[in-house]
Specification:
Elements lengths: L4 E10 L2 E9 L3 E6 L5 E5 L3 E9 L2 E8 L4 E7 L4 H12 L3 E3 L11 E5 L2 E6 L2 E7 L3 E7 L2 E6 L11 E5 L10 H12 L11 E10 L2 E7 L3 E5 L4 E5 L3 E8 L5 E14 L2 E11 L3 E5 L4 H8 L6 E5 H13 L3 E2 L13 E5 L2 E7 L3 E5 L4 E4 L3 E8 L6 E8 L4 E8 L3 H10 L30 H31 L2 H11 L2 H9 L10 H23 L12 H16 L5 H14 L2 H78 L2 H6 L4 H13 L3 H10 L1
Parallel strand pairs: 5-8, 19-24
Antiparallel strand pairs: 1-2, 1-7, 2-3, 3-4, 5-6, 6-7, 9-10, 10-11, 12-13, 13-14, 15-16, 15-21, 16-17, 17-18, 19-20, 20-21, 22-23, 25-26, 26-27, 27-28, 29-30, 30-31
Helix pairs in contact: 8-12, 10-11, 10-12, 12-14, 12-15
InterPro entries: HMG_box_dom, HMG_box_dom_sf, PH-like_dom_sf, RTT106/SPT16-like_middle_dom, RTT106/SSRP1_HistChap/FACT, SSRP1-like_PH1, SSRP1/POB3, SSRP1/POB3_N
Protein name: FACT complex subunit SSRP1
GO molecular function, one term: DNA binding
Length: about 700
C-alpha cells in the first residue's frame, strides 16, 4: 500500500465555482492546491469525520466532512479510482468511503437538514442538492417563505442568484418555523451585518486601488471601506495575502491586500486593495475592547493602547484579525540600492518587487505572479533604445506578462536573482535534465550554485557587448561617410578623362566591365584618410573657453571632499544622491551666494567667447585659404603623375602614325630641317595623347 495518492485536474467546489488544482492524500491528511490562486487547503487526518463517494456531473466526486462541521467537495475522479481510494481511507484514516448517490426523482418537496456549514435538501434518505451556507449573501423571510441570495460567481457565465423555500406552518406553539429556518441559515452564512461598534477606525486613508480616500472601520469578521461615493464590506475570509512594500523613494510604504473573490464596482473587479502611507505619519490607537477581551482574542498580538507609524498600526491590526503572514521584499537589491525595479506594464509606469516566492507589480494594474506558476522568463532587448531592456514572464497557463523600460544597470542584479531562484530563462536555453525546483504543493527556497548557468550568463553578456560595439561602429561609419561635397569631388576625379586614360593604359585589351572593380577599390581606399580628416575636423578646439558651471556644480566641487569625510566609503552614486539632498535642504541665502558665483563665471565666459570669436574667425579664414591652396596643389601633382604614367605608350603610337604620314607627303630633308621645332611640339603631342577618347586609343593600339 502506497503512503500517498496524487490526482491532477481535480476540481474543488468553492462558493459555486469549480477551481482547478492538484489533490494529494497522505498519512498526515489531505492537501489541495488551487492552480489559480496558489491557496493550499490542508485537512489533518485526525479531523476527518466522514468520506462520501458519489456520481456527479464531472464524473465522480469525493465529499469530506470534518469534525468541526466543514465540508470539502472534490470532483473529477474516474469510476475506476474508487477501489484505490477506499483502500487508502480504510488503511490510513480508518474510515469507510461510503457510496451515496444523489436523488434524481425531480420532486420539489422534501426535508431540509442543517449539518455544519451545509444545507441539504433530502427526499427520504437521499440528498437532492446541497448548499454551502458560506455561499449565502443574504437571507430574507416572508409569510411561510424563506429567500436565500448568493454571491455572484465571476468565473461562471451563468450564476445561481436566488432560491426560495416554502415552509408549511406547524401546530407547535411559540415556534415560528420560518424564523427558525432563517436563524439556522444566518448562523452559518457569509452575511455581513454591521452590528455593534467597530474595533477601531482609520480615517482618510489614501487608497490607490480603488482610487480615493476611505475611512476603514475594523469589525471582528470584516473590514468596512467607507468613501464619499462607494462603500465596500470585505470579509476576512476573502483575504488571500498581505504585502508590505517600501516605495523606491524610501519615504512611503505600500500595504497591499490580495482578495479572492474580488470586490466589485459596477463591472470592474478589484483583486487587490492598495493603500499608500507616508513613513512620517504617526498615530495613537485605542481598541474598542477591554484589556481582557483583547488578551483573550489576540493572545498578545495586539494591546488595547498602541502607538507608532500609521502603516505599522494598520498592518499589525490586519495581520492579527486575518491571521495571515505579511509578505515583505526579500534580499533583492537593485542597482540604486532599492528593493524594487522601476518599469512599465501596459503603458503605465510602476514598481516591480522580486519577492522570496514570486513577483508583485504595483500599482496599475496590480499583478502578483508566484514562482511555482512560472513556465519561463525572458530578457529581451528594448524596442526603442538599447539603454533599457524588457523582462517577460510566461506562466504555465500561457499568460504572458511583459515589464518594459527597465534600466540596463538593473540587468545583472535581476539576472542573478532569477538565477538563484532556479527559474527557467528562455533566451539562455534550458539545461538538459534540469528539474523544477518548486514542489507542487509548497514553495522551495533551495539555492544551489550552478556553474553552467554562470557560464551562460557570462557568454550572454559578451555577446551583448559585441553586438553593441558593432552596431555603434557601423552607425559611426555610415554617418561620417555621408558628405555630399566630398563625394562629388571624388566622382569628378575618378571619372574624368585623365583617370580613364591611366586606367586603360595598363591593358589595352581589357573591357569596361573589368575596370569597375578597380574604381570601387580606389574609392574604398580613399575613404579611410577622409574619415580621419573628418574626425580631426569634428574635434573640439582645445583653445576654446570652457563652459561655465552651474551654481550646484560649483558647490558640489567645493563640498565633495567634506561629504566624503562625513560618510567614509560612500559610493559615487550615493554621494550624488546625498549631495542632492543637502543642496535641496540648503537655505535660500546660501544658494544665492553660489548663484552669484555662477553668474560671474557666466559673464567671464561670454567675454572670453567674444575675444575667442574674433581671433578664431581671422585664423579660420587663413586656415581655410591655406587648405584650399594645398588641395589645389595636390590635384595638380596627381594629374602630372597620371600623365607621366600614360605618356610612353600613347606618345609612341602617335609618333608612328605621324612618321607614316610624313613619309608619304614629305621628304627626309624636310623632316630633318624641322628638328629644331620638335621640342616645342612634344608637349602638344603629349596633351593630345593624354586626352584621346577610348575609341581613338583602341584604333591606335590596333594599328600597332
Amino acid at each position: 500500500m502506497t503512503d500517498t495518492l496524487e490526482f491532477n485536474e481535480i476540481y474543488q467546489e468553492v462558493k459555486g465555482s469549480m477551481n482547478d488544482g492538484r489533490l494529494r492524500l497522505s498519512r498526515q491528511g489531505v492537501i489541495f492546491k488551487n492552480s489559480k490562486t496558489g491557496k493550499v487547503d490542508n485537512i489533518q487526518a485526525s479531523e476527518l469525520a466522514e468520506g462520501v463517494w458519489r456520481r456527479v456531473a464531472l464524473g465522480h466526486g469525493l465529499k469530506l466532512l470534518t469534525k468541526n462541521g466543514h465540508v470539502y467537495k472534490y470532483d473529477g475522479f474516474r469510476e475506476s479510482e474508487f477501489d484505490k481510494l477506499s483502500d487508502f481511507f480504510r488503511a490510513h484514516y480508518r474510515l469507510e468511503l461510503v457510496e451515496r448517490d444523489l436523488c434524481v426523482k425531480g420532486w420539489n418537496w422534501g426535508t431540509v437538514r442543517f449539518g455544519g456549514q451545509l444545507l441539504s435538501f433530502d427526499i427520504g434518505e437521499q440528498p437532492v442538492f446541497e448548499i454551502p451556507l458560506s455561499n449565502v449573501s443574504q437571507c430574507t423571510t416572508g409569510k411561510n417563505e424563506v429567500t436565500l441570495e448568493f454571491h455572484q460567481n465571476d468565473d461562471a457565465e451563468v450564476s445561481l442568484m436566488e432560491v426560495r423555500f416554502y415552509v408549511p406552518p406547524t401546530q407547535e406553539d411559540g415556534v415560528d418555523p420560518v424564523e427558525a429556518f432563517a436563524q439556522n441559515v444566518l448562523s452559518k452564512a457569509d452575511v455581513i451585518q454591521a452590528t455593534g461598534d467597530a474595533i477601531c477606525i482609520f480615517r482618510e486613508l489614501q487608497c490607490l486601488t480603488p482610487r480615493g480616500r476611505y475611512d476603514i472601520r475594523i469589525y471582528p469578521t470584516f473590514l468596512h471601506l467607507h468613501g464619499k461615493t462607494f462603500d465596500y464590506k470585505i470579509p476576512y475570509t476573502t483575504v488571500l495575502r498581505l504585502f508590505l512594500l517600501p516605495h523606491k523613494d524610501q519615504r512611503q510604504m505600500f500595504f497591499v491586500i490580495s482578495l479572492d473573490p474580488p470586490i466589485k464596482q459596477g463591472q470592474t473587479r478589484y483583486h487587490f486593495l492598495i493603500l499608500l502611507f507616508s513613513k512620517d505619519e504617526d498615530i495613537s490607537l485605542t481598541l474598542n475592547m477591554n484589556e481582557e477581551e483583547v488578551e483573550k482574542r489576540f493572545e498578545g498580538r495586539l494591546t488595547k493602547n498602541m502607538s507608532g507609524s500609521l502603516y505599522e498600526m494598520v498592518s499589525r491590526v490586519m495581520k492579527a484579525l486575518v491571521n495571515r503572514k505579511i509578505t515583505v521584499p526579500g534580499n533583492f537589491q537593485g542597482h540604486s540600492g532599492a528593493q524594487c525595479i522601476t518599469c512599465s506594464y501596459k503603458a503605465s509606469s510602476g514598481l516591480l518587487y522580486p519577492l522570496e516566492r514570486g513577483f508583485i507589480y504595483v500599482h496599475k494594474p496590480p499583478v502578483h505572479i508566484r514562482f511555482d506558476e512560472i513556465s519561463f522568463v525572458n530578457f529581451a532587448r528594448g524596442t526603442t533604445t538599447t539603454r533599457s531592456f524588457d523582462f517577460e514572464i510566461e506562466t504555465k497557463q500561457g499568460t504572458q506578462y511583459t515589464f518594459s523600460s527597465i534600466e540596463r544597470e538593473e540587468y545583472g542584479k535581476l539576472f542573478d536573482f532569477v538565477n538563484a531562484k532556479k527559474l527557467n530563462i528562455k533566451n539562455r536555453g534550458l539545461k538538459e535534465g534540469m528539474k523544477q525546483s518548486y514542489d507542487e504543493y509548497a514553495d522551495s527556497d533551495e539555492d544551489q550554485h550552478d556553474a553552467y548557468l554562470e557560464r551562460m550568463k557570462e557568454e550572454g553578456k559578451i555577446r551583448e557587448e559585441n553586438a553593441n560595439d558593432s552596431s555603434d561602429g557601423s552607425g559611426e561609419e555610415t554617418d561620417e561617410s555621408f558628405n555630399p561635397g566630398e563625394e562629388d569631388d571624388d566622382v569628378a576625379e575618378e571619372f574624368d578623362s585623365n583617370a580613364s586614360a591611366s586606367s586603360s593604359s595598363g591593358d589595352g585589351d581589357s573591357d569596361r566591365g573589368e575596370k569597375k572593380p578597380a574604381k570601387k577599390a580606389k574609392l574604398a581606399k580613399d575613404r579611410k584618410p577622409r574619415k580621419k580628416h573628418l574626425e580631426s575636423k569634428k574635434g573640439k578646439d582645445p583653445n576654446a573657453p570652457k563652459r561655465p558651471m552651474s551654481a550646484y556644480m560649483l558647490w558640489l566641487n567645493a563640498s565633495r571632499e567634506r561629504i566624503k569625510s562625513d560618510h567614509p566609503g560612500i559610493s559615487i552614486t550615493d554621494l550624488s544622491k546625498k549631495a542632492g539632498e543637502l543642496w535641496k535642504a540648503m537655505s535660500k541665502e546660501k544658494k544665492e551666494e553660489w548663484d552669484r558665483k555662477a553668474e560671474d563665471a557666466r559673464r567671464d565666459y561670454e567675454k572670453a567667447m567674444k575675444e575667442y570669436g574674433v581671433s578664431s574667425k581671422s585664423e579660420s579664414s587663413r586656415t581655410e585659404r591655406s587648405k584650399k591652396k594645398k588641395k589645389k596643389q595636390e590635384k595638380q601633382v596627381k594629374r602630372k603623375a597620371e600623365k607621366k604614367g600614360a605618356t610612353p605608350k600613347s606618345s609612341s603610337a602617335t609618333k608612328s602614325s605621324t612618321k607614316n604620314s610624313n613619309e608619304i607627303f614629305k621628304s627626309k630633308e624636310f623632316v630633318s630641317s624641322d628638328d629644331s621645332s620638335s621640342e616645342s611640339k612634344k608637349d602638344s603631342e603629349d596633351e593630345g595623347a593624354a586626352s584621346l577618347p577610348h575609341s581613338s586609343e583602341d584604333s591606335a593600339s590596333g594599328s600597332d
